[in-house]
TrEMBL record:
<dbReference type="InterPro" id="IPR031961">
    <property type="entry name" value="DUF4780"/>
</dbReference>
<feature type="compositionally biased region" description="Low complexity">
    <location>
        <begin position="1"/>
        <end position="14"/>
    </location>
</feature>
<feature type="region of interest" description="Disordered">
    <location>
        <begin position="1"/>
        <end position="65"/>
    </location>
</feature>
<feature type="compositionally biased region" description="Basic residues">
    <location>
        <begin position="48"/>
        <end position="61"/>
    </location>
</feature>
<protein>
    <recommendedName>
        <fullName>DUF4780 domain-containing protein</fullName>
    </recommendedName>
</protein>
<dbReference type="Pfam" id="PF16012">
    <property type="entry name" value="DUF4780"/>
</dbReference>
<feature type="domain" description="DUF4780">
    <location>
        <begin position="76"/>
        <end position="230"/>
    </location>
</feature>
Length: 239
């Protein structure tokens, strides 16, 4: 015979909660909502400052774009004397001949064109070695009497030139006179001319004007300018 006992699912040794169902539900909800997470539990950040990752400096490679080398003609150190198209061709022919004279097996410089801009010859070099080669060849090269060619930085070209012009009178409005210089002299733009001094002198009226790079390249090869009913010269002053 089989001996044992069966417990009814409705009759258990555990104590059954006799509270109404609604009260029991509130108790359960209260127990769940009452549980709080320990702020010091796992996952919290450890004390101490986080280490910042050091930025890696990229080294220049063959694919790194280089700024063009700027060949400028200097007049006593300042300001540059604009290079003409004829002078540009002389410089380019000289550099081409220097490349042809290189010994076999030596690394030839590499370029990606050249162009003349505001009286400065800009040469695009493909690598640092080519820039160094160009600077070495230009140094001391004097293709014409007034030549003083140098490799200059882009910031050097942001120069201003101060000039003085003595204009016979009468002069009622100096600003109108500056505009008249543009009207009476083809190829000259005086929109960036800045008058810094205007005074009466023996020769008439003295104008002290500061002009930019573009304006300087327009007048540097002119000996005189037409103003009113006269032709007048100009002098370069130290800024």
């Amino acid at each position: 015979t089989f001996s044992g006992s069966f417990s009814s699912p409705l009759m258990s040794s555990s104590v059954v909660n006799q509270d109404p169902f609604e009260n029991r539900e509130r108790q359960n909800i209260g127990r769940i909502s009452g549980k709080r997470k320990n702020p010091d539990s796992a996952g919290s950040a450890k004390p101490g400052k986080s280490k910042k990752k050091s930025k890696k400096v990229k080294k220049p490679t063959l694919k790194t774009p280089l700024n063009p080398s700027l060949i400028s003609n200097i007049i006593n150190g300042y300001p540059p004397n604009p290079i003409t198209e004829e002078q540009r061709d002389i410089i380019v022919d000289y550099l081409a001949n220097e490349i042809n004279r290189m010994k076999l097996g030596s690394v030839s410089p590499c370029f990606d064109g050249y162009f003349l801009h505001s009286g400065v010859l800009k040469v695009k070099c493909l690598d640092i070695q080519s820039k160094d080669w160009l600077a070495q060849k230009i140094k001391g090269y004097k293709p014409w009497d007034s030549a003083d060619l140098q490799i200059v930085d882009q910031n050097f070209l942001g120069y201003r030139v101060k000039i003085s012009i003595c204009i016979p009178g009468p002069v009622d409005d100096p600003i109108k006179v500056i505009r008249r210089i543009q009207w009476q002299n083809e190829g000259i733009d005086t929109s960036d001319w800045r008058l810094v001094k205007f005074t009466k002198v023996n020769c008439g009226y003295l104008f002290i004007i500061i002009i930019g790079e573009r304006s300087w390249s327009q007048i540097v090869h002119r000996k005189k300018l037409c103003v009113n009913f006269s032709q007048v010269g100009f002098s370069v002053l130290k800024c």
